[in-house]
Amino acid sequence: MSQYKKAFKKAFPYTIPVLTGYLFIGIAFGVMYAEKGYSFLWAMLMSVLVYAGSGQYLAVNFFVPGISFVQVVFLTFMVNVRHIFYGISLVERFNKIGKSRWYMIFALTDETYSLLCTTKVPKDVDESKFLFAISVLDHSYWVLGSVIGAVAGTLLPISSEGIDFAMTALFVVIFIEQWIDKKNRIPAIIGVTMATISLLIFGANNFVPPAMLAIMTLLFVGRKKLDKEESICH
Amino acid sequence: MPLSVKMSLLIIVLVAITTFATRVIPFLLFPKGKEIPKTVQYLGKVLTPAIIGMLVVYCLKNTSILAHPYGIPEAISVLVVALLHIWKRNNLLSIGVGTVLYMALIQCVF
Question: Which of A82, A171, A197, B110 is least surrounded by Cβ atoms within 10 Å, i.e. has the fewest?
Fold first, then answer.
């Protein structure tokens, strides 16, 4: 069995939660985009090239006459700005990987980032191939979901309202896993509290940048104590 | 389609490039072979749990706690996911039950 085939086989079970989540929220995106008058090929193109959940939800609103390109770039940047911080925690790890890291950087969504950081690589499989397999699998679920949504979403026999809760549930699960591991509980608490406070002050559309700022500040203030904690991302 | 093919393609390419930019910036700042500053190493370690905490809030950001149904469906569902996961530690079970419960709550109960 080739090394890659083995890596994909090993990685698949870990990606099942993302499979469920991405099918659901991908379908929701496909439905929304199709309602704008775009065929499934367009949904597929966007999911292959952009590959961002909230980014694509937002992007659906760009397809109106008179939209300014500056606005497209600005809003997209704002909704995705949190990704900058994902890279920071993966720089060391990704720099050990060959050319395939460029694809993995492209494919660094919230969900893939969380998986890459919290999954323990099985002993008998090459780490970089395993991580690459997770990235490719997640991306394919996303494309598949959006195509299904664009083709058949409107034909679903039951209302899909609320189906995107799968993503919330996935992050709650990852949060709990991390909590049970007893690693880095203080940063976790900082993340939840600062985000909540920022949300209450700045509202749903603007709270991420101030929340990140507050989180970074507190992490620096508490560095002496927190630096002793174990890493979960390396 | 509300826009021409050319315009639509242009928008998709712009969104794609901007999204990729937010993901690639750290790797351009700290390329292979360049020593990563201690501060960045530290951040890399403690940022992950903090960001995952923030993402939970991010997913719930559009919940209105001041108007009906006052965030009750979200609160119940998140609690069920958390307790179920502490009990069984089965990702698929926790996510599946939580999602179906949430859908039922917002569609049929509230």
Answer: B110
